[in-house]
Amino acid sequence: MNGRRRLLAASVISVQNSSFVYPSCQNCFSKLIRDSNRFNCLKCGCTGEAKDANYRYKLSLKVAGTSDLFDITVFGSSLDPFFGVTAGRLQRYIQDFNQVSGELDRDASPSVLIQAVKTCFIGRRFIFGVKVGRGNKLSCFFSL
Question: What are phi and psi of 110, to 5 degrees?
Fold first, then answer.
């Protein structure tokens, strides 16, 4: 997306998603489609074994600027310091936790993780690097 880059100081008012990692294409970072043993990228055609999939962070936030509300999604390793581990490691922790606890969906985020993310982000002020596109649509390219 072509657009002007701007900084946006805003406070997080809510977390919009409950799954904070996704299987990511190593070539184009698009979300991978997985079946039990394989993955496929619909965007670039990359394929491989599901056990070798890379993971990236994706955190969707509702934020309040000085006079407006914005939906911002933060991707990638800029979230590593907040979670304390890479997205791939967090995904392994989630799967291990769910296996031990008997959760049928091995990729579902435990409620304690969802609550911890909300506690960490809601009410805090951040500076987001955004691109302003057509119709003043914002796309986050980094956050501090």
Answer: -60, 145
Of 127, 141, 131, 117, give the one whose Cα is nearest residue 17. Answer: 117
pTM score? 0.85
**Cα gap 140→142, rounded to integer Å:** 6
Q: What is the pLDDT of residues 44-85, one digit of tens each?
A: 999 999 889 999 999 999 999 989 899 998 999 999 999 999
Q: Residue ranges of the alpha helices (H) in 4-142?
A: 80-83, 87-101, 111-121
Q: Yes or no: say if 40 and 46 are a contact pair by the CB < 8 Å rule.
A: yes
Q: Are strands 21-24 and 33-34 parallel, antiparallel or unpaired?
A: unpaired
Q: How many whole angstroms separate alpha carbon 81 and alpha carbon 86?
A: 9
| Confidence band, pLDDT 50/70/90 cuts, at residue 1 | very low
Which neighbouring-strand residues pair with 33? 40
**Could you read off the pLDDT of 85-103 as tens digits, one per residue?**
999 999 999 999 998 988 8
Name the amino acid, one letter, at 55: Y
- 59 and 17 in contact (C-beta within 8 Å)? yes
